[in-house]
Amino acid sequence: MVATCNVLNLAQPGRHFYEGQDPYTQNEFDRKVDWLGNRFKALNADVIAVQEVWDELALRAAVARSGLQYGVVSVPGAENGPGQHGAQGTPRVGIVTRLKVESLQSMVDFSPAAVVQVPGLGLHARFERPPLIAQLRLKHGQPLCVITAHLKSKRPKFLEDAKGRINEDTADPSVQALASLRSLIMRAGEALALRLKVVELLHQTRTPLVLMGDLNDSPHSVTTQLIAATSQVAYDKGANDHALFSAWDVQGEAALRRDVAYSHIHQGYPEVLDQVLVSEEFLATSRRTLGDVRRVEVFNDHLFEGRDRSRSDHGFVRALLRVRLPERETGG
């Protein structure tokens, strides 16, 4: 069972995280970790990909409130301890898992082929929120690669001065359009960098891969398809080897696809931003299959409860994946 959760600015009480936003009071913090703990308990996933964590300690508190046992709670870049003061500038992504972790790697820099030029900003060559690549082992020994990602939002990227103050006329429609283009180019660069890493990880291997997170665009958008390249499969069956597929589209229990699938509401419109993408090893119809996607569920009832930062503004997506048991070795 895997799940992706954008936890909406999870930070320690009293800690400033964004300019213009008050820190959480102790009461707000307690409500937030209680709420998250209950959601984690309901999800009961073996792997939880989390986004928008400012303090690893705060995530540990939420996991503890769930009452569930997890061996690993890790948010690289948001650690708390001597000389470590949580994430700085922007929140980070992390992982919570019961599975054995063989390695964790934060992907900070783009490969040179993915570097893009952004108008007014120059070269965009690194992730604002570095994706986290986890090499895991299932309890029967099968390998699994999980990538947690949180791509650049659609929010307009206005130019700032050296002190971080916006120095453009944000009311000018032309400036707004250019600022939105900057965000799109940045997200596209991040998507391309992620795509190149996915190809590297999948090429001529049979290790199943799951990419989860807030991709800040819909499953069929250009940027999501930059990462997944699902459409290439229609023209080239060999593309299966390094394509990713929406778990929602390939799940086995087809009747459940009629469920309400959105994970975010923006200005009254439902969107699917939080996604679970899987490699062909989870395609029941692939000749390289090692398992399947049994079902996918979206936990989004709280989106109707009004805006309250003690909850999340995203629905949580959970997928039940099945992986074949390894073949037993025969012989003396």
Lay out the secondary structure.
Layout: E1 2-10, H1 26-43, E2 47-53, H2 56-66, E3 72-74, E4 80-81, E5 84-85, E6 92-97, E7 100-106, E8 116-118, E9 122-124, E10 132-137, E11 143-150, H3 173-202, E12 209-214, H4 222-228, E13 245-246, H5 247-250, E14 264-266, E15 269-271, E16 274-278, E17 291-299, E18 316-323
Helix pairs in contact: 1-2, 3-4
C-alpha Rg (nearest Å): 20 Å
Number of helices: 5
Order of helices and strands: EHEHEEEEEEEEEHEHEHEEEEE
Number of strand elements = 18
Report how far the terminal alpha carbons are from each other: 36 Å
Mean pLDDT: 90
Note the beta-strand portion.
25-35%
Q: What's the helical proportion of residues?
A: 10-25%
Taking strands numbered 1, 2, ... along the chain, how are they ordered across the largest sheet? 3-6-2-1-18-17
Classification by helices and strands: alpha+beta
Major β-sheet profile: 6 strands, mixed
Unreliable stretches, pLDDT < 50, 5 or more residues?
none
Shape: globular
Structural features, described:
The chain is of the alpha+beta class and 332 residues long. Helix content is 21%, strand content 28%. It has a 6-stranded mixed beta sheet with strand order 3-6-2-1-18-17. Strand 8 (116-118) and strand 9 form a beta hairpin. Helix 1 packs across helix 2 (56-66) and helix 3 packs parallel to helix 4. The longest helix has 30 residues, at 173-202. The two termini are 36 Å apart. The mean pLDDT is 90.
